[in-house]
Amino acid sequence: MRHAHIHLIIGALLALGLFAVPAQAAPVICEKYGSTTVQNGRYVVINNVWGADTAQCIDVNQNGGFTITQAAHNKPTNGAPASYPAIYAGCHYANCSTGSGLPMQASSSSFGSLRSSVSMSYPSSGTWDAAYDIWFDPTPRTDGQNTGAEIMIWLNKQGSIQPVGSQVGTVNLAGGTWQVWFGNIGWNVISYVRTSPASSLDFTINTFYADAISRGYAQRSWYLTSVQAGFEPWVGGAGLAVNAFSFSSGGGGTDVTAPSTPGAPTASGTTSTSTTLTWGASTDSGGTGVAGYDIMRATGDTFARVGSSTTTSYTDTGLSPSTTYRYRIRARDGAGNVSPDSATVTVTTQAGGGGGGSCAVTATTQNTWNNGYVIQPVTVTNRGTSAMNGWTVTFTLPSGHTITGIWNATYTVSGGTVTVKGLAHNAALAAGAGTSFGYQATRPDGNTQVPSGYTCA
């Protein structure tokens, strides 16, 4: 597992006044922790060989970049990288650029307009990643280790390396699709690994930070302290180059408000391999508008993004027959802010092969609280080509749960299995027709489970 940059030794050198920060024309830097400023102090460039004692030199471009001209690294790929040479705006262990406006609280009206861009070049050899490293702290810290969140944006990588922690999902942001990784090493590390390599990126900082907040890994009250772009080499690294870098407060708008929660999804047209979801539209008061919706699906406890839609409907295909799935929807606005997840709908696909009396069932979680919930509608549909004279829905009631009421149906409970049957007015269904029922249940206080495994016969 890769470890994030722990630069305590840098802070010590700075405190002792041993960290030279020349303001003259950009040099070639070979000192282990050497740095310089470019563009009259607007950015700082650091060599930052924090994880190895091997040689590394960078040729600094006064226009705003650098090239690794020498790198003799040969680190194991299951451990930490050798270094993080980078160009940055803001403060890093008391080494601050000028005019960045950082630290800045992420709740500030100006935060949504913060924007950065980078252009990079890559060699064909070596083992490395090309990544932004964006730091947040609960306080407006200018020195020492940040303890809030470290957001890493991997534009490219080469070799068998991976970020801290484990993958927790995928997301579409800033014109690309990214794997999302999470780990904690004394602070939260949220890494976005591009699924198709890129050599440039132009984005608002809030685009990725809003996604991290929506996942519970960061807080709007924290402070952005620095925006860094560079490389983590394990093996070699010569030839890696930042051709251009920028950080500014213009062009991104000031929208830091998440869209409203989408309406509860419902499912229809469920077959053995697909289902169609529809939901109520979200609204956005931040000014950038709702840009689309993420469809989240789970077969166990963990939801993962399986698709997106710019409308309020989505057909999920490639499903397995006789399998129960749960779905939630979340909205995303033009600035990358993400809404809370919608209520959950439970869908059980039909058995393979269909037939004259096949029956499908979908269940929607309408409301939940600490010790109870309401499930409605539970929709029963005759997907066959002939009439059904009756239907039976079964599902699993989690341990400790008790049904306190049901409407539009009758039920019995045996062990943890609930059996529901239609009433005189809705038991018979013509081909293609449907009906619905609902129920309320209690559960142990704080238990977040709801019933699953709905089947229909």
Automatic annotation (TrEMBL):
SMART domains: CBD_II (SM00637), FN3 (SM00060). Residues 261-352 form the Fibronectin type-III domain. Residues 352-457 form the CBM2 domain. Residues 257-281 have a biased composition (Low complexity). One of its GO terms (biological process) is polysaccharide catabolic process. It holds the Pfam family fn3. Belongs to the glycosyl hydrolase 12 (cellulase H) family. The lineage of its organism: Bacteria, Bacillati, Actinomycetota, Actinomycetes, Streptosporangiales. This is Glycosyl hydrolase family 5. One of its GO terms (molecular function) is polysaccharide binding. PANTHER family: BLR1656 PROTEIN, XYLOGLUCAN-SPECIFIC ENDO-BETA-1,4-GLUCANASE A. InterPro entries: CBD2 (IPR001919), CBM2/CBM3_carb-bd_dom_sf (IPR008965), CBM2_carb-bd_dom_sf (IPR012291), ConA-like_dom_sf (IPR013320), FN3_dom (IPR003961), FN3_sf (IPR036116), GH11/12 (IPR013319), GH12 (IPR002594). Keywords: Carbohydrate metabolism, Glycosidase, Hydrolase, Polysaccharide degradation, Signal. Residues 252-281 are annotated as: Disordered. Residues 1-25 form the signal peptide. SUPFAM superfamilies: Carbohydrate-binding domain, Concanavalin A-like lectins/glucanases, Fibronectin type III.
